[in-house]
Amino acid sequence: MSRSGFVALAGRPNVGKSTLINRMVGEKVAIVSDRPQTTRRAIRGVCCRDGCEIVLVDLPGVQRPRDALTGRMAGRVRQELADADAALLVLNGEQGVGPGDRYIARVLAAGALPVVIAVNKMDRLSRQAAVTVLSRAAELQAEWEVFPVSARNGAGVESLIEHLRTLMPRGPFMFGGGATSDQPPELMLAELVREAVIARTFNELPHAVEVLVEELERPRAGLVRMRALVWVESESQKRIVIGARGRMISSIGRAARKELERALDAHVHLDLTVRVRPRWRSDDALLDRLGIT
């Protein structure tokens, strides 16, 4: 009989949760950035192996709610953990086990979920450093299994998947049909544009950028026309995103188009418009429209 269930990924910012999900799924379903709090939604990737469907949930980072956006993110974390069948605590092997990791481990230990630890970025460690961090990870909770992995090159990932498979309850597939994510296409494409914005405005902008796809059409085979809005919160941020003589928005468009064409397997005509919406992160109507629940 088949198995199917949800695994919630928890961990500090920049430990590589999104990269690990993409590696396990086999294609890009979550955007990747070194910037904390890049993940705003609970992104689900579907990993299928040997009669088992593992739905991986990349949780938004946990933080004290400051506005409607972060309040919704915190609520989403609580809900996804409550609905999961297992939790995967991801650690950054390069950074070792710190107070933030121990705090998250205590939160997970207080629940009823089985927990597995993945120590990521092991390919960057010396043998002695690897032994040390794996030992510290094992000390977090004696009964939790620890897996050394590299989301970047895939080392150890199949062993991790096989173990998670044993934790999934018996039951029919929830997605099937070759699905790799439950995200609507417009949301996945908007996230690829946001990834390009974040990568190029890393030092200039706070967490004030969001992207909304307004139009998506295929006028003919092999061609996609997409119009997207890039929301910022002030005129100064708009100037940063556009750049001198439009150079920044052109650079963002070129990078985003490359990812979009890879995802859609088609030539993409991309039209980006930057708009100012003050305090959009506190605007419930806009958050609803953006799909941040």
Helix/strand-derived category reads: alpha/beta
Which sequence of SSEs, written as H and E, runs from N to C?
A: EHEEHEHEHEHHEEHHEH
Task: Provide the number of structural domains.
Answer: 2
Taking pLDDT < 50 over at least 5 consecutive residues as the criterion, the unreliable ranges are 36-40
CATH classification, class level of the largest domain: Alpha Beta
- CATH homologous group name of the largest domain: P-loop containing nucleotide triphosphate hydrolases
Summed over residues and divided by their number, the pLDDT gives a mean of 84
The CATH topology of the largest domain is what?
A: Rossmann fold
Taking the alpha carbons of the first and last residues, their distance comes to: 34 Å
Number of helices: 9
- What percent of the residues sit in helical stretches (DSSP H or I)? 25-40%
The whole-angstrom Rg is 20 Å
> Which strand order do you get reading across the main beta sheet?
2-3-1-4-5-6
**Strand residue percentage:** 15-25%
Count of distinct strands: 9
Shape: globular
CATH architecture of the largest domain: 3-Layer(aba) Sandwich
Largest sheet: 6 strands, mixed
